[in-house]
Amino acid sequence: MFRTIILLSIAGAALADDSDLIAFCCSEATQAELGAAGAQCGPVDDNGEPVNVQAADFDQSLWSTGAINAQCFACWNEETNSLDVEQAGCDSATDSNGDACNDPEGFCVTFANENQAAACWTPEIGTACAFENEDHEAVLGFCCSETTQAELAAAGAQCGPVYSDNGEPANVQAADFDQSLWSTGAINAQCFACWNEETNSLDVEQAGCADATDSNGAACNDPEGFCVTFANENQAAACWTPEIGAACSLDGYGSGDGDGEAVSEDSTEDALFASALRAAAAAMGLNAEQVSDFAAFLEGLPENSPLEMMVQDALEAAFGETAPSIEALTATMETVFTSAAFSTTLGDIEGVDASLLAAVTTAIGDATESGAAAGLALNLAVVAMAAAALL
pTM of the prediction? Predict the structure, then answer.
């Protein structure tokens, strides 16, 4: 659970620790209260819709354009996380009903001073709730922001896997990463030796962690060291997943262009597909150039064409109610691409580059032969077991 080091004690009630605070703040009831109070008291856009101006990816330049109406946020002290009616600009601020924001008996002052939910109005808790409630748009907004990406890059260079020859970070969770590099010594794991990819967290008891060191030579399992502290206490560490990494790698995300556009759940799915497509093509034996050509070919398929519909059907089945892992989607795509139906449909398309068609056809043939060999081996094993049983 994220460590949002805040002590909550309002109106005589206290929440015991961080986990209790997050559970309270991220509950459906509290989020509903915050939504209603935010619309009346917090910053809104031209349409009166609440705007999360504390989000990592919020375009702060919008303040100067007049696109944001601060309402009672003009009275909010972000350092103390509390209402300060003496703050500059507060005396003339009004809420959505036109009531003075500094009215001691008004809704906004009462909510801020007497309702526990007001303590949830922090960037850290907002991000924690995005993860807790699986708000993909908000999670990617945080993870793909320029600030978070810079933090991850710096921490990755010190704590994560790097190329042995130049110390540059290596994205070993990328779908198209060549896993054989581990065996060649080309990758220095550093504190990734302590990273549990299943739980997406640091596990200092993991095999190999005891001897692992970061780029500064500090022990990776040092409870007071930078890497342990970053992994356990910095919200950005939760962004270290293949899926989020793939989404943030899309053009325009995490690039610091300041356009303020949110990254949607559809973008996450597009990124997963793009990564899985390339990984599947590489697994089929295509070289780097062929992988790029194959990806461009598939992405350029006419809508509702037989091959495009075949891929779309597979994607819809793979995603279902929840997004699959990058590994599962890669396996699905490889199965589709090496199927007889895909091979036949591909061969019927006119204008496909001859070298690309030959490479894909060869890969499909190899996969078919491999599958047939595996089937033969299984049949022989069954026969052998039957014979043994008879004997």
Answer: 0.56
